[in-house]
Write a structure and sequence with these properties.
Blueprint lengths: L3 H17 L10 H4 L4 E6 L3 H12 L3 E7 L3 H13 L6 E3 L6 H5 L6 E4 L3 H13 L3 E4 L7 H14 L3 E3 L7 H11 L6 E9 L3 H4 L20 H11 L7 H10 L8 E8 L4 H8 L8 H4 L7 E8 L4 E7 L11 E4 L2 E4 L10 E4 L12 H6 L3 H10 L7 H15 L7 H19 L5 E2 L22
Parallel strand pairs: 1-2, 1-4, 2-3, 4-5, 5-6, 7-10
Antiparallel strand pairs: 7-11, 8-9, 8-14, 9-10, 11-12, 12-13
Helix pairs in contact: 3-4, 6-7, 7-17, 8-11
Bound molecules: nicotinamide-adenine-dinucleotide (NAD).
The site of nicotinamide-adenine-dinucleotide has 27 residues, from helix 3, helix 6 and helix 10.
């Protein structure tokens, strides 16, 4: 994970940082020098997403799950049940409130943590872990404040403890085949890219967790899982709240932060109607239910246009409050053709057109192209990925995390990607609040984007 030349410095810096970090009184252990064949994991948050990472970890014989922190005892019990089903030793539990994760971080027998907590916790969980010398796998979202993004970068640069952006959609099979086509020049020079999060979340945003009752109309204190925390973001914020599923995959195709960078964005939103209508029309709610009358600030469809220094444009769409089938809406367009997806993935879905190879002015099914350019990683690991979440892509993101640590190699999606992608959210909120004004996107690499080389998808190992 750490470049070899940095290892000695890391050990020295880590000791200094560990001493300075008040919460972490125990000395840090530098894992890689001692133990490379097994990665010892701590889980921070064992909700639904934490459990899917946990499931991937439990399948592996090169991972030990040592401890898990989550204040929700119901989620913790579900996670422990999963561990027992895999016949593994029960991890130590930290369930004593929101800050018990810091006691997990004090352990000297953990190399890395996977963070799958609510968005408002990502900053503290990630930064406290890096300061405690624990390598971080960070789930997706957007930042609450722009400063959070700098905090991630500054903490990494101070501690040299790596953090991986766990964006699983970068590993979707059709996305990786298209990446392969991009890297082989099939589309020519890339011009315009689209992606988004177009997913009807209404049944997730209103769910009281009553077993078998189906989605309800409650959220916040009465809500379960994401209804407990995510819906409040819809109530209080208007912006591109979930940028990474759309941006991450196209970012790897245009070598973002590695020869290219985002320069500016502008966002606009529609009015907000979907969540009110949902509660008003629900048999559990009705027009007089308090949650049918709340003002949800988030516009039903948020559109964000982004520019890059290499002359591309990107359009992101956030659309989670309306009845609609799932779609991430990818479009990858270059000087020589384009691919468009209109579903949740699959080689037979969407359209492709390659100038000079496709029939004149006619869309083709992408199937034969995506099969021909199936990514070497997928060819190699498709068996292992069978049964893993989200059509197998969860296997790849977790495998990349563990293999990078074991092989002491840089993460394919690193702190600069995390900061840049997370920054879209607060910048889009500001843009919308100011009527769509252009917002400059900071260069979180401080100029290193000019010389950093592309890595994602270029190895057939992980
Ligand atoms: N990549 C994907 O495909 C994908 C899918 C779903 C969710 N996610 C992301 O995963 C994250 C978690 O989402 P989820 O669906 O699992 O939500 P969830 O509500 O099911 O789980 C969140 C868990 O975090 C716990 N938690 C809250 N505060 C905590 C704290 N201080 N310390 C430790 N644990 C704490 C909660 O008790 C809960 O169990 C979010 O960032 C979400 O956007 C990603």
């Amino acid at each position: 994970m750490l470049e070899n030349s940095n290892r000695r410095k890391f050990i020295k810096d880590a000791a200094i940082t560990g001493a300075a970090f008040s919460v972490m009184s125990t000395p840090m252990k530098v894992f890689a020098a001692e133990k490379k064949s097994t990665v010892r994991i701590g889980m921070i948050a064992t909700g639904f997403r934490g459990q899917s990472h946990l499931g991937e970890m439990l399948k592996r014989n090169d991972v030990e799950v040592i401890a898990m922190a989550d204040p929700d005892k119901r989620m913790m019990a579900m996670a422990q049940k999963l561990v027992a089903e895999h016949g593994k030793k029960a991890p130590v539990e930290y369930t004593n409130g929101d800050y018990d994760y810091r006691n997990l971080l004090k352990r000297t027998d953990i190399d890395a943590v996977i963070v799958a907590s609510p968005w408002q916790w990502h900053r503290d969980h990630g930064i406290d872990a890096m300061n405690a010398g624990k390598i971080v796998g960070m789930e997706v979202c957007g930042a609450i404040h722009l400063q959070d993004c700098w905090d991630f970068v500054n903490t990494y640069e101070k501690t040299k403890v790596p953090i991986m952006m766990m964006e699983n959609v970068c590993y979707r099979r059709d996305v990786m085949a298209v990446l392969n086509m991009v890297q082989k020049g099939l589309f020519g020079d890339l011009l315009h890219l689209q992606g988004g999060y177009e997913h009807d979340l209404r049944g997730v945003l209103f769910n009281d967790g009553t077993p078998n009752a189906g989605p309800g109309v409650e959220f916040g204190d009465k809500g379960f899982s994401e209804a407990h925390w995510r819906t409040v973001h819809h109530q209080k914020r208007n912006g591109e709240l979930y940028p990474t599923h759309g941006l991450g995959p196209v970012a790897t195709m245009i070598d973002l932060n590695r020869g290219n960078r985002l320069t500016a964005l502008s966002s606009v939103s529609t009015k907000s109607m979907g969540l009110n209508r949902y509660v008003a029309n629900s048999p559990y709610g009705g027009p007089d239910h308090p949650n049918a009358k709340i003002h949800y600030k988030l516009g039903d469809v948020v559109s964000t246009q982004i520019q890059t220094t290499n002359g591309q444009t990107i359009l992101l769409t956030h659309d989670t409050s309306s009845p609609r089938p799932y779609n991430l809406g990818f479009r990858v367009q270059g000087t020589n053709g384009l691919w468009m997806d209109y579903s949740g993935g699959g080689f037979d879905k969407g359209h492709i057109y390659i100038d000079g190879k496709s029939p004149d002015d006619a869309w083709e099914s992408p199937q034969k192209w995506l099969e021909e350019y199936d990514h070497p990683l997928w060819k190699r690991y498709s068996k292992e990925a069978e049964g893993a979440g989200h059509g197998g892509m969860d296997y790849f993101v977790d495998n990349a995390f563990i293999e990078s640590i074991k092989r002491d190699r840089p993460f394919p999606l690193d702190v600069y990607d995390l900061a840049t992608w997370y920054a879209i959210t607060p910048l889009s909120e500001k843009s919308i609040a100011e009527g769509g004004t252009l917002q400059r996107i900071p260069d979180f690499t401080n100029g290193k984007w000019r010389t950093r080389k592309p890595v994602f998808g270029l190895s057939d190992e992980y």
